[in-house]
Design brief:
Distance between the termini: 178 Å
Number of helices: 23
Helix content: 40-55%
Structural class: mainly alpha
Strand order of the largest sheet: 1-3-2
Shape: globular
Number of strands: 15
Mean pLDDT: 75
Low-confidence stretches: 1-30, 376-389, 393-459, 499-511
C-alpha cells in the first residue's frame, strides 16, 4: 500500500513540472573543439595596430597641456603625471621625439629655468576639429547608442564606470563625457551609486539602463542578413599561410549551421560546454567589437568586461578557437583583439570621422620639421646623452644653462678624440680639425641627431681647408719645420756660393 502511494505521488510531481524548451538533440550534444592552431601573423592587421603606437599617450598629454590656462606645462609636472598619462619612456624624450606636436621652450622669467612644453599650431588645429566633432549633436547621438547597446548586452543592464573608462579610448568618448554627454540623454541611461558594488576599483558608480530600445537591440549580423533569429554564418577569413586541420574544418562547417542566438537575448539556458553557447559568446564578442569605433581593443579590456558579464573564461576560449573571426596582434607591447570583418587590406572597411582625426594625428607625428629651409626628420638619439642633466630639468631644479651643458659635452668629445689618437702631432690635429668640428655640431643639441651628418668631401672645402692649414703652419711653424727651414737656407747659401765660383771659373776658361 505504501509503495502504491509513493508511485502515485512521484507521478503527480512529474506532471506539475513546467515543460522545458525543446532543442535539437544533435546540436545540444555537440561539444567544443579542443584542437590547437599554429599562429600565423597578418601583416596588414599588425600594421593597423602598430601605426597607432604612442598615439594614446600623445593625445592624453595633449589634453593635459590644453587644459592649462597658460596652454603649457613644465617638464616637472609632466613627470609627476607619467603613470596616469601612460608615457612609454621619460617625458623629456617623448616630447622631443615628436617635435611637430610638442614645442619645447624656456620661459622668460629668470626664476623659471626649467623647459616648458606647449602644442604646435598644427596640433592645435587638429584639436579644434576634434572639439567640433565632440560638440556636434550627431556624434553625441552615436556615443549614446554605443553605451546603450553595451548596457542592453549586460544581463543586469548595468556597467561600472571603471569598465567604461577602460573602453573609453575605443568608444570614442570625450574627456568630459560624464558631464557633457550622459546628462543629455536621461531617457537612455543614468549614473547611480551602489554601495558594496565596487568592481576592481574604489569607484562605486555604475551606468544604469533606463529604457530598453527594440530598435537598437538588433545585432550587426542581423542587420546585414536582413533577418532575425535565422541561421546565417559568420564571415571567416584566415591569414595567409594558415593551415586548417580537416577535423577543425569539419567542426567549423557544422558550427556555422547552428542557430544564431542574438547577443541581446538571455542565453542562460545554454550549457557552457556546448557549441550553442560558444556560438552565442562569439556573437557577443562580435557585437562588442562592432560597437567600438576602431573595431579593435586590447585583450585585457575585453576580459575585464567579460569578468563583469560572467563570461571571462568563455571569452578567452572563443578568441582562441576562432582565428578566422578574431585576430590577436602582439604589437605595441600588448595583445590587441582585431575584428577581421572590420578591416580590409589593413584599413578600416568603413570610414569614420573620428578615425580620420586620429589618422591626422598619426600623420603629424610622422611629419618632418623645417630647419634652415630644409625638411629634416628629427630622431631621438642616444649619443652623448647626459641623463643627470635632463633629470634635473624634469625635476624643475636650478641646473646648468643650455649652452654650458653643450660646451661641456663638446669638450668631453674633444678629450675622448684626443685620447683615442694617443699622439701629440700638431699637423694631424690641424688637418682633422674641420671634420671634428662638423662631428661636434652633429652630436650637439641635447643628444638629438638631425638627419645624417656626412663628412666633408667637397673639393672646394678641402682646398680651402688645406690653404688655411698651410697659412697656419707658415705663421706658427713647429720646431721640426724651423730646423728644416734653417737647413734649407744653409743649403741655398752653399749652392749660391758654388754657382758663383763656377761662373767665375767658366769666365776664366772662356777668356
Amino acid at each position: 500500500m505504501t509503495m502504491r502511494w509513493i508511485i502515485l505521488f512521484s507521478s503527480s510531481n512529474r506532471r506539475q513540472q513546467p515543460p522545458r524548451k525543446q532543442y535539437n538533440n544533435l546540436n545540444h550534444l555537440r561539444t567544443l573543439f579542443e584542437g590547437t592552431f599554429k599562429t600565423v601573423r597578418d601583416r596588414g592587421l599588425d600594421h593597423a595596430v602598430e601605426r597607432e603606437k604612442h598615439l594614446k599617450p600623445l593625445i592624453s598629454l595633449k589634453n593635459l597641456i590644453k587644459r592649462e590656462p597658460s596652454k603649457s606645462l613644465p617638464i616637472s609636472i609632466i613627470t609627476q603625471n607619467k603613470e596616469s598619462l601612460q608615457l612609454p619612456f621619460r617625458p623629456v624624450e617623448f616630447t622631443r621625439k615628436y617635435p611637430s606636436v610638442f614645442h619645447e621652450f624656456l620661459p622668460v622669467a629668470a626664476a623659471l629655468n626649467a623647459p616648458h612644453i606647449c602644442l604646435t599650431p598644427q596640433a592645435l588645429s587638429i584639436d579644434s576639429n576634434e572639439q567640433l566633432l565632440y560638440q556636434s549633436d550627431g556624434y553625441k547621438e552615436q556615443i549614446a547608442n554605443r553605451l546603450l547597446k553595451l548596457l542592453m548586452i549586460s544581463r543586469i543592464h548595468k556597467i561600472p564606470l571603471s569598465i567604461i573608462e577602460h573602453l573609453k579610448w575605443d568608444l570614442g568618448l570625450p574627456h568630459d563625457y560624464l558631464h557633457g554627454v550622459i546628462p543629455e540623454f536621461p531617457d537612455y541611461f543614468r549614473v547611480v551609486q551602489e554601495k558594496f558594488r565596487a568592481f576592481r576599483n574604489d569607484d562605486d558608480r555604475v551606468l544604469e539602463l533606463v529604457c530598453w530600445s527594440n530598435e537598437l537591440a538588433v545585432s550587426v549580423m542581423e542587420k546585414k542578413n536582413k533577418k532575425k533569429g535565422s541561421d546565417f554564418e559568420f564571415p571567416v577569413q584566415f591569414s595567409t599561410g594558415f593551415e586548417m586541420d580537416r577535423s577543425y574544418q569539419r567542426w567549423l562547417s557544422q558550427w556555422q549551421k547552428l542557430p544564431y542566438v542574438s547577443p541581446y537575448e538571455n542565453a542562460a539556458h545554454l550549457s557552457a560546454s556546448s557549441d550553442e553557447s560558444d556560438r552565442w559568446v562569439v556573437g557577443v564578442l562580435h557585437e562588442i567589437l562592432q560597437v567600438l569605433v576602431p573595431k579593435k581593443t586590447e585583450k585585457d579590456n575585453l576580459l575585464i568586461l567579460g569578468d563583469w558579464l560572467g563570461l571571462r573564461s568563455r571569452f578567452k576560449r572563443a578568441l582562441l578557437q576562432h582565428p578566422g573571426i578574431f585576430y590577436l596582434s602582439s604589437k605595441i607591447g600588448t595583445q590587441t583583439v582585431v575584428l577581421r570583418e572590420g578591416y580590409k587590406r589593413g584599413s578600416l572597411a568603413e570610414r569614420h570621422p573620428f578615425m580620420d582625426l586620429r589618422s591626422q594625428y598619426i600623420h603629424l607625428m610622422n611629419t618632418t620639421i623645417k630647419e634652415d629651409g630644409k625638411d629634416v626628420k628629427v630622431v631621438l638619439g642616444k649619443i652623448n646623452q647626459d641623463e643627470s642633466n635632463d633629470k634635473d630639468l624634469e625635476e624643475g631644479g636650478a641646473g646648468e644653462d643650455d649652452r654650458e651643458i653643450r660646451g661641456d659635452r663638446d669638450e668631453s668629445s674633444e678629450a675622448e678624440a684626443d685620447a683615442f689618437e694617443g699622439e701629440d702631432n700638431s699637423e694631424d690635429d690641424e688637418e682633422e680639425q674641420p671634420r671634428r668640428v662638423n662631428f661636434k655640431t652633429a652630436q650637439s643639441s641635447w643628444g638629438r641627431v638631425v638627419g645624417r651628418v656626412k663628412p666633408v668631401r667637397d673639393s672646394k672645402r678641402e682646398r680651402s681647408a688645406g690653404r688655411s692649414t698651410q697659412k697656419f703652419r707658415e705663421r706658427n711653424p713647429s720646431e721640426a719645420s724651423r730646423r728644416l727651414q734653417i737647413r734649407g737656407q744653409n743649403k741655398d747659401v752653399e749652392s749660391s756660393v758654388q754657382r758663383s765660383r763656377s761662373s767665375k771659373s767658366r769666365g776664366k776658361v772662356i777668356t
